What we know:
Layout (H helix, E strand, L loop, with lengths): L16 E8 L4 E7 L4 E5 L5 E8 L1 E6 L2 E6 L3 E5 L4 E5 L5 E8 L11 E2 L1
Antiparallel strand pairs: 1-2, 1-10, 2-9, 3-8, 4-7, 4-9, 5-6, 5-8
Amino acid sequence: MERFNLDNYSTVPEKSIAKRVIYSDQNTLAFVLNISPGESLPDHTHFDSTVLLQVVNGTARLIVDEQSYNVQEEDLIKIDGPETMAVHNTGGENLVLYVTISPLPADEKYAQNADF
């Protein structure tokens, strides 16, 4: 067993977005995505992987295949790999998302911390 605390991965982004990886193996990638107020994660897909997003803190507009959804704390969203998604922080505080992707994408860059 391993135990993780999301507070250890929640941070104020130095730029617009800070991704902090919690766990990664061949089957699963888990990370926290921290998005500054007014900032966005641009349109993208996750190919053959399923994505689960849980809103830990804040509010956002989630765009999935050109349909807009307002999401807030405690919402849990499943996105299939081929669906195009974007996230816009609509609140006045950092948006914190707990994200899992399964299976792990082939490109190793997905399993690394990132600031962008």
